[in-house]
Amino acid sequence: MSQSQPRALGLATRFAARELRAGLSGFRILIACLALGVAAIAAIGSVRGAIEAGLAREGAAMLGGDAELSLTYRFADAAERAWMQDRATAVSEIAEFRSMAVLGEDRVLTQVKAVDAAYPLIGELALSPDIPLSQALAGDDLPGAVMAPALIARLGAETGDRVEIGGTAFRLMAALESEPDANASGFSLGPRTLVASSALAGTPLLAPGTLFDSRYRLSLPPGTDLAALEAEAEARFSDSGIRWRDARNGAPGIQAFVERLSAFLVLVGLAGLAVGGVGVSAAVRAYLAGKIGIIATLKTLGASGRVILLTYGLQIGALSLIGILLGLALGALLPLLVAPILSALLPVPAEFGLYPGALAEAALYGALTAALFTLWPLARVEEIRAAQLFRDPGAGQALPRPAFLAVLVLLALALAGSAALLSGAASLTLWAFAGILAALLLLALAARALRAAAARLGALSRGRPALRWSLAAIAGPGTEVLPVILSLGLGLSVLASVGQIDGNMRAAIAEELPTRAPSFFAVDIQPDQIPAFLERTEGDAAVSRVDRAPMLRGVITRINGAPAREVAGDHWVLRGDRGVSYAGALPDNTTVTSGTWWPEGYSGPPQVSVSAEEGAELGLKLGDKLTVNILGRDIEAEITSFREVDFSTAGMGFILVMNEAALAGAPHSWIATIYAERAAEAPLLRDLGRDFPNVTAISVREAIALVTDLLDSIAAATSWGAAITLVTGFLVLIGAALSGERARAYEAAVLKSLGASRARILASFALRAALMGAGAGLVALLAGILGAWAICHFVLETSYAVIWPNALAVVLGGLALNLAAGLIFAWRPLSARPAQVLRAQD
After folding, report:
1. How far apart are CA 656 and CA 653, in angstroms?
2. DSSP collapsed to 3 states, 412-479
């Protein structure tokens, strides 16, 4: 360090300390904007940390064991059981499937769990009445069943009633109040029923070919290396279709959902920080504008540009640190204060506390945002000469030196890169940053366009003095247009995007799907039941269409002889078992996009047709060989065609369809989709339940209702995040109004001296605020529509239409917010005495 550098730093520190003694005047908005943005991100991270800690702590209890191996449509064979028993101190076998619970005329879909005597290995169930599970499942004259209270209520059942499940009779012995491994099964379409596995022996519920999952929970010796055992299991069972889970991630579906939702909320929080950054920049600009005389004096006395930069940089850095620390304190304390409420609302355990990682992440974002938005106005004053400052108070408008521009670019890249790295959703984060940057550029251009339009229209507003004055204020020097448009516009853009996405998702569920989707899925139809099943359904005049297909489940284990994941990565098709069907001749509703379908009656080496979209994503081509494990048997088939599969209709669709000879000999059942008029659904369900008790009918409307409930929770969370962004924008508006209060007081004094009434001056202020608010709202609407379209089209892959009520609310909201902020700070300038204001200005 040269001799001048420590001296410059020493002088700057002394000057900064002296100026800070004057208090925080002019910087309250800066501190509030940073604090609010950092607090939102810190609170989101803290809640995520609490959930992850709870899942880790209760991982074994939520899973029901230290580890779990699961299979589809079959139980473990002797060799697989022996491997588990050799490594575990206890093993519990569970089978899960969907069926219909029937009491009298009432039929309700239920998720059945058939358990053995060892269940549960970890944790305790709570039953009402409080009896041992073994006693409840033993029953009396009939095997016992335990049902969730919601299922009991929907059936109108009471303890002791005879209930049928899939045609098998059970005695309802108790209500299932709590289940330690309730979240281990993931998404469920029906309330829970527990029965003993022994009660299902000889029944069609677990017959070969029926749809069920078998799960083997393992209690392991203390100190077992779960990672090493997982690697051993994957090597041993790589081609058998067995899937591994353990206590390190007892509820992977929930954890993945939490991570995705929190990543999205952090992005909303970063948008709020960007809005706050606009306020920070405006506050710094206004503060430096008020220090023009001091800066000019210091430069006249020989202070270098470095000293000036360090003086105000140290001040703003110290105040930014205060804002960040306040935000961290608020973000850490808020989840602790509402922990009892959140714990009751969350479906998973949460361990609330202080999470340094989440706080450090929020602090990093806050520091980078503060540096990014303060460096520009700071850097512009370094190279300005004293004479310029004395002659022209608006002279600090030159671009910063290239070195500062390079630092600004590096700060922006650091902010985007750290968010992409820490969020766990790098692609989504980078696209979100690109969207925020595009919105800021669009808003900045809109602010410039609004000033130009105001200048042109000002000449045409003769005879309307209030309008002319407002247009002149918008077009003139020192205007508030840029900070207002940027802050309010970005906040409204986020809100508009959230509203448009939510509206389109609800429209897709509530309007599109019911017109195209089937009324029911019917599963576990045995092959010999197909003729009678079709006679009842296709013979009903209220049924417009019945589609059916054989149904198996398989795991793609290899592609061209190599492990599938090594070839195609972690694609969702490879993460578990997928539906597999077979067909002879080309079905009527199938469109082949490339290749050829096998001829009817083909009995040669197995061939497979793959969904075209998923095949392209996996990098598959005609002639490739897929190895699919079905019921523990590997089948290698050549890809001879690709075909269109539209999953958006909620109808029947299979990733893989093989030739009939390849699969017809395997135990399997059939699946059917039934399209019926709504009035015919109840009689149809009743007749199918009576004639085919083993068949499970799944209502598409009930499944849609569950998805709608999930959307409600997501929309609520994102709306709160967007609201925080908008509140930050409102703070920036207040800051802009405060910084322009002196100019409005001078303007009002001049107009009063020329004979203008207070009412007309107030109308001018109101028109100015309304025009800027409406401009911000219109641009935000455009940005929100474009952003929502991009997310719906590229991420959610749904259709998109503008939700005009939401759009109108955004424009009116922008107008109202800026009008409110403008009028709040209009009274003091109007009340000031003109002579006093004009003398002070001189």
Report:
1. 9
2. HHHHHHHHHHHHCCHHHHHHHHHHHHHHHHHHHHHHHHHHHHHHHHHCCCCCCHHHHHHHHHHHCCCC
- Per DSSP, what are the bridge partners of residue 93? 216
Same domain, 286 and 376: yes
Give the span between the Cα atoms of 682 and 687, in whole angstroms: 9
Taking the model in full, what pTM does it have?
A: 0.69
Whether residues 289 and 420 share a domain: the answer is yes
- Compute the CA torsion angle 361, 365, 368, 372 (nearest 10 deg): 170
Asked whether residue 379 falls in the same domain as residue 305, the answer is yes
Per residue in 718-757, pLDDT tens? Answer: 666 666 666 776 776 676 666 667 777 777 788 888 788 8
Helix (H) or strand (E) segment spanning residue 582: strand 578-583
Task: Assess whether 355 and 452 both reside in one domain.
Answer: no
The closest of 230, 219, 218, 248 to 57, measured between CA atoms, is 248
Domain count, the chain: 4
Residues 716 and 665 in one domain: no
Instruction: Give the domain range for residue 607.
Output: 543-676
Give the C-alpha separation, 253 to 51, whole Å: 13
Same domain, 174 and 320: no
- Give the span between the Cα atoms of 705 and 708, in whole angstroms: 5
Please write the tens of the pLDDT for every residue from 192-213: 999 999 998 878 788 776 778 8
276-302 confidence digits (pLDDT tens): 777 778 778 777 777 777 777 777 777
33 in the same domain as 91: no
Residue 243 maps to a domain: no
Are 499 and 385 in a shared domain?
no
Phi, psi of 630 (to 5 degrees): -125, 120
Quick one: average pLDDT of 564-575? 84
Which residues, 6 or more positions from 87, have their beta carbon under 8 angstroms from its beta carbon? Answer: 218, 220, 224, 229
